[in-house]
Amino acid sequence: MYLFWLNNVFIPATAQLNRPLLLIMDGHTSHVSLEMMNLFQSNAIICLILPPYTSHGLHPLDLVV
Fold first, then answer.
1. Of 31, 25, 30, 23, which Cα lies nearest the Cα of 51?
2. Do 4 and 30 contact (CB within 8 A), yes or no?
3. Which end of the chain is more exposed for a tag (fewer CB within 10 A), N or C?
């Protein structure tokens, strides 16, 4: 499912942006595969994987100002 989103939504939607891009995601095992890493590399996307059990505290949209 995540690979489908990456390939069919994220990459086409960001095709016109300057590269490299930074994609921040949690470290769920379904989000990490060799095929995804190859997609990141071929599309100049830097993937930052948050450590386990920290996404609630580190996720920028979850913080209240």
1. 25
2. no
3. C
Q: Which residue, 15, 31, 23, 29, is CA-closest to 48?
A: 23
**CA pair distance 4, 20, nearest whole angstrom:** 21
Closest CA to 56 of 29, 21, 30, 27: 27
pLDDT in tens, 30-42: 777 889 899 999 9
Position 12: which residue type? P
Q: Is the full-model pTM beyond 0.90?
A: no
Paired tokens of 45: 């996307």
Residue type at 25?
M
Q: What is the CA radius of gyration of the chain?
A: 13
